[in-house]
Amino acid sequence: MNTRETMSWWVSSNALYVMLAIVLLSLLNYFKGDSLSSWLSAIQLFNTTKPAVKLEEVKKQLFVGLGREVSHDPMLRERRAIRILEIGAGTGSNFAYYPPDTHLVVVDPNPNFAKYFQANKDKFDHIRCERVITSTGERMDMVPDNSVDVVVMTQVLCTIGDPCKILQQIIRVLVPGGKFYFFEHIREFDSERHRLRQKLQDLLTTSGIAPYFLEGCCLNKDMLPAIGAAGFSKVRAERFYAPIDSFIYQLVKPCLKGIAEK
Ligand SMILES: C[S@@+](CC[C@H](N)C(=O)[O-])C[C@H]1O[C@@H](n2cnc3c(N)ncnc32)[C@H](O)[C@@H]1O
Q: Looking at residues 202-223, what average pLDDT do you find?
């Protein structure tokens, strides 16, 4: 085989993708930081402290409407406060975008959240944490029907096999007219221009490598069809590329964000 033939064998076989996957996972391990538990996730890093990742603008744009939401709870409305339920809050990377006097309910299966929140509550003094529920979003039956003005869920659906159940729960707990704010990384949506990324996402997910190393995270999902079919009265959503330059996050660059109304 000459050099050109060798190169084309590497590209046409899956060997190149496997090599890239191994390099990528080693890098992820190298760069992993502290998290609420042993949760190792590219996405958690991608959302929190790394200077290479600039998601502030994306989140600011997504959450700007929170300040205009009006509560259905008369007592909260009088104070211009709202009640937000965040599902899978993780390290609280969204809290900075919540409006003053946010009444917060958190559902997260990670049992360390309450401790984490207590330790950081000075940073979150615009938030009153009403309740922390250690559970998955699919099983949050203890949150009453029609009880929250807004549900926020970011970078969670990638780990959930069947999103229908959690989306039904979100609709159940929202007040009529309440909003669901979402932001997820998704499967590459431009297969003409970014075929390599799409192939890598598929390979790393179907081989089980990404779910194994990243706590169940699938790199090749697109949640928009499920959100669209869940029964919201309106869905505004946009697929876009997150402003991420760093090489190790290229697989989570294609994203979906939006707001759905009950
Ligand atoms: C990648 S982190 C995202 C954290 C935060 N939402 C963010 O955007 O930075 C995923 C979070 O979802 C939580 N989680 C995983 N499975 C869940 C489920 N079935 N229901 C609710 N939360 C879940 C994890 O405990 C973790 O805190």
A: 93
Is there a domain that residue 228 lies in?
yes
Give the residues across from 237 on adjacent strands. Answer: 258
Residue where the block lists tokens 């996957």: 21
- For residue 36, the ligand 1 atom closest to its alpha carbon is 27
The pairs formed by 114-117 with CB atoms below 8 angstroms and a separation of 24 or more are: 116/36, 116/91, 116/92, 117/92
pLDDT band for 41, please (50, 70, 90 cuts).
very low
Q: b vs e for 147-171, b when ≥16 Cβ sit within 10 Å of the residue's Cβ? A: bbbbbbbbbbbbbbeebeebbebbb
- Residue 254 Cα to ligand 1 midpoint, Å, equals 19
Strand 254-261, strand 102-107: pairing = unpaired
Which residues, including other chains, have CB under 8 Å from residue 79's CB and lie 6 or more apart?
101
pLDDT in tens, 81-116: 999 999 999 889 899 999 999 999 999 998 888 788
166 in any annotated domain: yes
User: Which residues form the domain of 198?
Assistant: 3-48+82-261
- Read off the CATH number of the domain in which 204 is found: 3.40.50.150
Residue type at position 210: A
Nearest atom in ligand 1 to the alpha carbon of residue 37 is 25
User: Considering only CA atoms, which of 154, 201, 160, 186 is closest in space to residue 256?
Assistant: 186
Average pLDDT over residues 220-231: 97
Residue 61 confidence (pLDDT):
94
The answer, yes or no, to whether residue 49 has pLDDT greater than 60, is no
